[in-house]
Design a protein that fits this description.
By secondary structure, the chain is mainly alpha-helical. It folds into two domains: 9-223 and 306-495, Up-down Bundle (Growth Hormone, Chain: A); 232-303. It has 20 helices and no strands. Helix 5 runs antiparallel to helix 6. The longest helix has 34 residues, at 349-382. It starts with 8 loop residues before the first helix and ends in a 7-residue tail after the last helix. The model is unreliable at 220-227 (pLDDT under 50).
Length: 502
Amino acid sequence: MTKKPHLSFWQIWNMSFGFLGIQFGFALQNANVSRIFETLGAKVDEIPILWIAAPVTGLIIQPIIGHMSDNTWNRLGRRRPYFLVGAILASLALIVMPNSPALWVAAGMLWIMDASINISMEPFRAFVGDMLPSEQRTRGFAMQSFFIGTGAVVASALPYILTNWFGIANTAPEGIIPPSVQYSFYLGAAAFFLAVLWTVIRTKEYSPEELRAHAEADALIMNESHGEEISEPEKVSKVFLNRSILWIGIGALLSYLIYHFQLHPELYIFSVGIGFYGVMMLISGTLIKNGNTKNGVAIVMHDLYRMPKTMGQLAIVQFFSWFALFAMWIYTTAAVTNHIYGTTDPTSELFNKGADWVGISFAVYNGIAALVAFLLPVIAKRTSRKFTHMLSLVAGGLGLISIYFIKDPNLLLVSMVGVGMAWASILSMPYAILAGALPSNKMGTYMGIFNFFIVIPQILAASILGFLTRDLFGGEAIYALVLGGVSMFIAAATVMFVNDDH
């Protein structure tokens, strides 16, 4: 038995390179989908509900793909088959998205595009845990952050570059996506596929037997609760069945209150989501009680129930971090065009100029993230991973709140420095802390489950931000960004309570 060997810089580079393409997809989505929705007729308070596709697909797809990749081994390997299939599907979706003829088509394409991107992305997180020894994992996730930042810089700026450098129009008749956005998505499709293909070709995976030997050598033998099957099935099924009644009841009660008081329909997303969790517990408890302890749904729910303590602590940090990010992605275009540029007309040149500048601002925060990615391991080594993450989240909160005080668009780039620091850390530090607390034979499953604590706050944001912006903030999207900044501060405070023993 031998421990995992240290990989060279270029080996880590090659295994992470696919994230460059993945981020082309996400960055084009984050910077342009709200713009596409508004162009096709969506009102500003309707945008969050249209964005619900992204977190819901992640919630469903990532644990499924994680569990499947944990139990896959063929000629391409364990994780690489999913890299490739997701890249093909996402590239096709990127081509179709900017040609959507109607709002409902664009909303549907967002579901397909986000699901495809998630198929590629989820195994990449587990890939670092598979391939790198514990002392190199911070570097591995930092390398992913570098490629995420680099890809997003180019992808976010593409409409601006195509317009100002190549003369491609950034305006179009009402209801038509501007050519600069269309061509940006086509270029993103090519970059996505080619970057992922590079990782598939240039990286060799460890076989299941080698991974098992490495785990034993690293004294990471799985305990009973993390074995291949469900432990203590009678106890688990009883807990699941009892708790399912509670969660279904809470979901039903909240749905009734929303209906009775005629609250806004998007709040049903929150109440139905709670009820859906109860239904999943009921299904899982019934399966386990009937002896179906190898069923994928039951195993994922069991592993969620038995998740390591460190993962539960990080879940709180992730919740507030990603609520802030989702508020930013949804509302930066509306906030900047209205609060700074003074327009809400998506057909006007001024609106599209502001929307392009949002793309540049997003490119800046991702560029900062790419640079900071190499600095984070150094800071973490001199202090701790927790302190590094706390410092970065505080910077992100300050960056988001500062936008409220800005009238000169150029100063947005200063705000994005803080956001970039937070983004780099969010993409690396929680995963570096988490990977050391996970059993190696469940790496993919738990990385997928960890995604719950990214998408649940996004679903919450999609269900309440429209309500808050319309009824509490008077239609002023800038206050959604301020709320995001406060959420970052809460995340920074909670990170110091996380156990990081590795």
